Every structure is written in structure tokens, then in C-alpha cells.
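ingest -> validate -> predict -> emit
validate: passed (alphabet ok, no gaps, 278 aa)
predict: started
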Amino acid sequence: MIQRDVTIAQLDDLARSIRRDVIEEIRTAGSGHPGGSLSCAEILAVLYGYVVQPGPDWLSRPDRDHVILSKGHAAPALYAALAEVGLVDREELGTLRQLGSRLQGHPDVTRLAAVEMSTGSLGQGLSVGVGMAWRLRATGGAGRVFVILGDGELDSGQVWEALSLGGVLGLENLVAIVDANEIQNDGPVAGILDLRPYGPKLQAFGWAVREANGHDTGELVAAMDWARSGEPGARPRCVIAHTVKGRGVSFMEGRPEWHSHALTLEQYERAVEEVERR
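emit:
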């Protein structure tokens, strides 16, 4: 577990631990989604290790921040982050996808209290985030709502309905983070429904936008500071985090087939070695 006074080096270590846990979880389970879990390791490290920093009473605090993993197939990375900050027992990571486990293949709020929303049917997380942010503002809550989306997920029309409403309502306490790894289940986003550049479209929907290297924790910290600063005015904010699918494991990086894939023993050993060495 990291300390409250966090450094960039600690956040890098946290991201490395998340990646190692993802590989362990998926190898033990015999199935899972390694590519998109590995691409968002730094995003989750900065959110939970720097921004949210949950303590023992975090879930009961009315003024706390909220995190929704809308790209629910990256659940192994979320569970790893929750274990690092003490919201899940480390031993429980070995139960991923088992019958009766709290750690299902996609987050299930009815099983695990630290999960903000049951996700996996892509395109729904931001809509719930809009509702949560609106309620926080209406009731005077001090927290913010952070929603992690995949860039392939932006194909869903419901995402754009949520973006529209969030912009119209001026929800300055809402932050969307796009894990822009450029690959979705069926292949590269450029060959399926290329919505890039995202920035001008988001701005047209009333959002303030900032782009960052999604594997540079220093850039992500600066982006999160910007998102929480209240500038520029009463608008929701979006951080477009440019990432690499399968980041940290050479034979997975940029490979669509590793969106959902089990690991052989040889692949597992090589992946662990590469993640530890990076």
C-alpha cells in the first residue's frame, strides 16, 4: 500500500504492481482481458494513488470522489488497484472469474462495495457518471466523479448522449478519462469507426479537453490537477490519455488479439519478466 505523500516514482511502482497483478490474475483464471487492462495501469495508479487516495472509511464518506470503470473488461486492473490501496485483500485477486467470487470478469457492484457501477456492457458508464455528478452538485457534495472509458467504447451512441447532457449541465465536477489505446475488440479503431480527433468533438459538446501521455504518471498527475482546478469555468473535463494496448508486454503491445486472451505458462513467465524489468 502506498503512502499519502506520494511521489512520481511511487506511482510508477504502483502501475508496475498493477500490471504484474493483472498477469497473475488472468493466468490463474485462465481467461480475461489483458490488453485493455495493461493499457490503463498508469491511469488507475494516478487515480487511486494520487487523486482519490481512499482510506479505511472511504466508502462511507459522503464527500468522497467516485471512480467508474466504464470499460469494465479491464476489471483485472481495477481489482489490482483496489488491492494496492487496501480495498480488496491481495489473496482475493486469485479468485478472478471464479464462481461465487466478488471479483467477476466485469465489475459487479452487488458483490464488491468498492465498485461504483456494474459495467461491461460498454457505453453506459458515462451516463451514470453524469447522474452522479449532477446529484453531487445538487446536494452540495464536494466530491468529483471520474469515468474511465475506452476509445472503442466511444462508438456507442449513448456515450455521446451523456457527453451532450454533461456539457449542457456544465458539470464541472465530472471528469472523463479516455484510455485511447487505438484498438478495440474487432481491430484498430481507425478501421472500424474512426472518430479521431476527439478533442474538437468533445469541445463542441461543451467539454474542456486536455491530452496526455497515458503512460507518463507525471503528465497524468498534471492532467488530474488541471481537471480538479476548476479552470476553465463550469464545464466538465476530459483527459484523452494516449496509451498502448498491452503496454509492458512486448508480444501483447498493439496486438488486437490480446484484447481477450489467456496466457500459456511460457507467455506468463515472459510477461512477468518484462513487466518487472520495465
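The longest helix spans residues 8-29.
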